[in-house]
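Reading group handout, session on sequence-to-structure problems. Before we discuss, look at one worked example. The prompt was deliberately terse, the way you'd type it at a terminal:

> structure DUF4188 domain-containing protein

The input record follows.
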Amino acid sequence: MAKPVMGRMTHDYDGELVVFLIGMRINSWRHVRTWASAIAAMPPMLRELTADPESGMVGFRYFGMPRTPSVIQYWTSLDKLYEYASDPGAKHRPAWGEFNRRARAAKGAVGIWHETYVVDRAETLYSAMPPTGLGAATALQPIAAHNRARDRIGGAYAAAPSPEKRSRAE
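And the output record:
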């Protein structure tokens, strides 16, 4: 098990960031072949992506077990995500085809979902945590004393007065 990193940390990453969430919901436990094959298909895809630094996926984490197994993935590019999803030589395409065949045979036994976010800015805080989430997918760096979330998110958000300062000024 990873050891906690002491102190206040944030992620260290510049560039395009895409967060991709994908998961399923087991609606019928008795259709084991349908949901088990869908669950079994994800680890080989993640190994394939992790083994290829040019794939664009920089990290992932499982969550939602056992009924709604899901994965959050961090990508360097939306194009790289779509490229992998449509690559006939990659593990995704055959797994997707197999899932569709099984799902048609067992209507409604398994639900699937995914969400894709292109992130303009990201703010993170980790305190006494092992590398987690975006910090594990990229790198960690210490947060300077008195550095606030508003400062870390940057852009117009950092320049805007906080809600408490706005209410006092009004």
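Points for discussion. First: The CA atoms of residues 33 and 53 lie 32 Å apart. Second: The domain at 17-119 is CATH 3.30.70.100 (Alpha-Beta Plaits).
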